[in-house]
Amino acid sequence: MPSARALAAIEAPFDWRRALSLHRRLLAGELGVIGEVAGNESDTRPALAVLLLGVLAASLGAWLWIVIDTQGAGLGAPALKVLLLGSLASLGAWALWVGLTWHALRSIFQVNVELQDLTRAMALVGGFAVWQFFMLAGPASFAIGLITTIAAVLLTVLAVRAAAPEADDRAAIISAGAGFGLYALVLSIVADLTGVSSGLFVHAIG
Question: Which of 5, 56, 96, 104 lies at 20 to 30 Å from 198 by C-alpha?
Fold first, then answer.
């Protein structure tokens, strides 16, 4: 059952200022904010908002790259498959990333961690994907997407450590890495088979 504090946080008005402050601190390299969010139930919705902002920015950057690369020839279909469906696919794959990371921590390393704490921490670092907006920069598109994705994975390891202090570096790296492997596999397959993609994985469209 949700705690009284969690229910109060759900019922409270959404605090956009808090979400933007958390995002700004993350992008400024203030890594302590990850632990702060992991331990604060009231930051659940702000952290998820930060994740959503990152995903939408990554989708927008990928779509603009397609538009620029095709000289505007593909406005309609990419808008649907990248901006809308691609964002939804990314959020779904991210949920699998969180779920597998949580499961690996518990089943392989016997580290007990609250799923909500892990979700908050990983949602916050997911906001780092906002830098993928700059994938619109033509020939540098893939490099920007790759560098941003690698940085996000490294930040996810820190998020795991923040949400699960009992996990050592090995447990955090393997758990987060396994989750990311599933995330990347799902998005790559979806992009190749359906043309639905977002961020870096737009380059996997078959």
Answer: 104
Say yes or no to pLDDT of 7 above 70. Answer: no
> Over 80: is that where the pLDDT of 6 sits?
no
Residues 33, 185, 55, 107: is their CA dihedral positive or negative? negative
The CA distance from 117 to 104, in Å, is 15
